[in-house]
Amino acid sequence: MAKPRLQSQRRTDTGVHRANPGRRDPQVRLGSARKASAPMILRSPTVDELVSKFLGGEDCTMADAIVPPLADPEAAWQAVLCIMQHKLAEEQISLLAAGPVEDLLAWHGVQFIDRIEAEARRSQAFAHVLGGVWRRDIPQQIWQRVEAARGGKVW
Known about the structure:
Elements: H1 47-55, H2 63-66, H3 73-83, H4 90-122, H5 124-130, H6 140-149
Helix pairs in contact: 1-3, 3-4, 4-5, 4-6
């Protein structure tokens, strides 16, 4: 049985301050949000999940794996490599360049630029993907290396 609230308490179950009835208390959740639910488990997606969602058109950003706090940029990089093994439509190539590859470079460029350069040397298709990356938030020293790796081809 819940303890009854005292009149002197600041808020009620409706979220209205007793001292200021016109103001809602942000600490009180109303409606269905107040009901108990299963705890949400936060984790970074797996490589297979990232590849499946990208190829299925569900998530073309891979932000869950790239952007903190759940970042697992290694999983995003491995997913990019797996995706590159598929026959991609031009739209998918554009989304890969402007999404995961660009974000990896912006958020984790120092960590991945050597591998990105090596992959561009190994794979003409990947060098082509780099042609669709825009500088945006990529640090200058990383960006210069991206420009060199894509061989001056920009689309």
